[in-house]
Amino acid sequence: MDLSSVQQDALIELINIGFGRAGAALSKLTGHRVQLEVPEIQMCPIDEMADRLRLLLDNEVATVHQIFSGPVDGDALLVLDRHSAAILKELLTSEPPLPLEIDRSAREVITEIGNILLNACLGTFGNILKVKVSFSVPHLTLDTLESVVGSITVDRQGLRYALIVHSHFRLRNSSLTGYLVIVLGVGSIELLIRSLERWEGER
Amino acid sequence: MAPELSLDTGRLEAALSHWLSHESQRGVFVTDPQFRLVVWNQWMEIHSGRLSGEVLGRSLFELYPEAATRGIRESYESALDGAVTVLSHAFHRFLLALPPTNTELGLAEMPQSAHIGPLSLDGSVLGTVTIIDDVSDRLTTEIALRKQIEAQRRARATAEQALHAKDEFLSTLSHEMRTPLNAVLGWARILLDRQTLDHALVQRALQVIERNATAQAKMIDDMLDMARIVSGKLRLEMKTLDFVSVVLAAVDVIMPSADARKIAVRTHLDPRTPLIVGDPDRLQQVIVNLLSNAVKFTDVGGSIEVRLDMSDSEAHLIVKDNGRGIEPEFLPHVFERFRQGDASSTRRHGGLGLGLALVRDLVELHGGSVSAESAGEGKGAAFMVRLPTMAEAAVSADGVRAAGPGPRALAAIRVLLIEDEPDSRDLARAALARFGAQVSAVSSSAEAVTAILSATAETLPHVVVSDIGMPVEDGYVFIRQLRALSPERGGRIPAVSVTGYGTPGDIERAKAAGFQLHLSKPVDPLALIEAVAKLSREGL
């Protein structure tokens, strides 16, 4: 199963609508103009996810993880290089940096940013799928990419797919990229693709 | 398969509910879908000052209208749609305006982070649940950490700066050490390459080599001194001394290089300057450094003035030149280590930039101070050294004051002083007079003989102090003439000789000629006083 380029474009457009709102929310919170955009989305079976992410990220990452449940369920993660996370926090708060490991305030800020992005993205899915999902409390970990991938691939049944949403932050003359990873069961993916086609048809 | 639980889940739920209400160290409250409060735990009661009885059933935004204005209401609305919202302290500062728990942070509200989420059962949302954390302690820790990190960063910057200064110094050092070495090597090669050597050439080569080797030795000495001062290992040999004689000795050292550049050195030294406590070698080094600095920066044919006065119980030395002066921007830095005026002048004048830094450090080790003045480039410069005199020094130098002769040690002692050099004569006269001696001073051997021959029993000196090196008739001629007289005419008056040379041979020769005691120049005034006192007591 794969996304056609038309489907991919449609999905990018949809998520960008959600990200537009998220960017506006972040701008309001921080007092800086924050732009968020999705230049690319990749979809792959979960077994290939690790290889794809390794090409995009350092091994030391900061991850905000939320589990969602309802008619569709799965894992949603925002994964950032550790140093990108620190830079993002510094750009957004203008506070002098501390190492993330000892800076709970910074970890909390990154958690909130992840929460805003994941809500925006999953809210968009909820809208097109016309379903309501519930979220767990977001949780931030500073870990290796390997163990992050491990935590969402082990111990689950069924064929699952990962959507890797490239997320571009532009603020204060800087830009950096994080990756939203949405892991869905094959049923949810099929539902998503059908809904995309319907949404395209309605336009 | 999970083991069968033998617990009463109803009781467990009641216990959990009790814990959330009464024991939790976080604020917990629950609203219905209309945001009316249905749970308000004890933490909330304590920190809001509102008992659950007062708040239950009332709308959260009616109790805290201000929260609605900050966009908090949207989070509650999305909670009804199943979304969880995290509110970080950094972005929101607080969820509800509660009084601060830590007044040291200077915040009007308790700093908080919170999350707001749906309270749902079997897929339907029953209301919202909010958890609040008081982050005061965390903020305090983070502020302290930031301060520590900033302090470390600053310390690192300072260390790097010092390292940079050291690098610069090392490059100056290698340049400066190489310059005299080049001259030495160059002339050595010239001599080696010549088939025949004429005397003039050898003489010239040796002079250059000698001069450059001396310059290099001086540089090494300066560096070692600086290293000792920086590491606190410089030992001062403190003694009571006459600053005037130290200044004169320093002028003697610098005279050849001043003469070579036709620079006139004028001295105005107040001979009444009281004794000071200090290390004579180091103080001489201070003055030599100031003088060589003046010579270095004064053009050929210029002049240098050395003035020593007393003011406010301080000896006040001024070394003033009419040389190139100091630019105003550089003036505050002249005494800093490794600092020199602009780079081009550094190249023109050479040196390590340590001389004046040593002056400052050495003077400060003596409890004194230094300062510099200049009206600007091309307008000459003046360096001032202030040193505490004995009364002051005795206090400031931690009782280093040596046990010396009492102030009336020479009361009623008549001394005949023979010295051709006016400054030295004034100095010795002042030293003797200060301890009560009646001094008559003459400038030649002939005058001294006349004075003794014309004296009566009441005016005949008790002790004679004579310089050896004098033009026409030296001290040896005088003492032979004196010893030739009958005892009642003064033939047995004890005598002290003073010479610039203190080798055992000189001392023997002086004794053989008829002197009882011998002192070398520069004369330590206290040694002179003691010598005169001893001879006046013991006689011949």
Query: Sheet with the most strands of chain B?
Result: 5 strands, antiparallel
Residue share in helix of chain B? 40-55%
Mind telling me which CATH architecture of chain A this is?
Answer: 3-Layer(aba) Sandwich
CATH superfamily of the largest domain in chain B: Histidine kinase-like ATPase, C-terminal domain
- List low-pLDDT spans of chain B: 342-348, 392-403
- Reading the helices and strands of chain A in chain order gives HEEHEEHHEEHEEH
**Principal-axis shape of chain A:** globular
What is the straight-line distance between the termini of chain B? 123 Å
| Biggest sheet overview of chain A | 8 strands, antiparallel
CATH-level-4 superfamily name of chain A:
CheC-like
Sheet-strand content of chain B, in percent, reads 15-25%
Number of helices of chain B: 19
What is the mean pLDDT of chain B?
A: 84
Just name the CATH architecture of the largest domain in chain B: 2-Layer Sandwich
Can you tell me the CATH topology of the largest domain in chain B?
Answer: Heat Shock Protein 90
| Strand line-up in the sheet with most strands of chain B | 2-1-5-4-3
Shape of chain B: elongated
CATH class of chain A: Alpha Beta
Write a brief structural summary.
The complex is a heterodimer of chains A (203) and B (540). Chain A is α+β, with helices and mostly antiparallel strands and 203 residues long.
Please, could you describe this protein's structure?
The complex is a heterodimer of chains A (203) and B (540). In chain A, strands 1, 2, 3, 4, 5, 6, 7 and 8 form an 8-stranded antiparallel β-sheet that branches. Chain A has one domain: Chemotaxis protein chec (3-Layer(aba) Sandwich), CATH 3.40.1550.10. In chain A, helix 1 packs across helix 4 and helix 3 crosses helix 4. Chain A is globular, with a radius of gyration of 16 Å. Chain A contains 6 helices and 8 strands, in the order H-E-E-H-E-E-H-H-E-E-H-E-E-H. The mean pLDDT of chain A is 85. With 203 residues, chain A is an alpha+beta fold. Chain B has 4 domains: 17-134, PAS domain (Beta-Lactamase); 158-230, Helix Hairpins; 239-396, Heat Shock Protein 90; 414-538, Response regulator (Rossmann fold, 3-Layer(aba) Sandwich), CATH 3.40.50. In chain B, the strands form 4 sheets. A 5-stranded antiparallel β-sheet of chain B has the order 2-1-5-4-3. By secondary structure, chain B is of the alpha/beta class. In chain B, helix 11 runs antiparallel to helix 13 and helix 15 (422-434) packs across helix 19 (525-538). The N and C termini of chain B lie far apart (123 Å). The interface between A and B is medium-sized, with 30 and 29 residues.
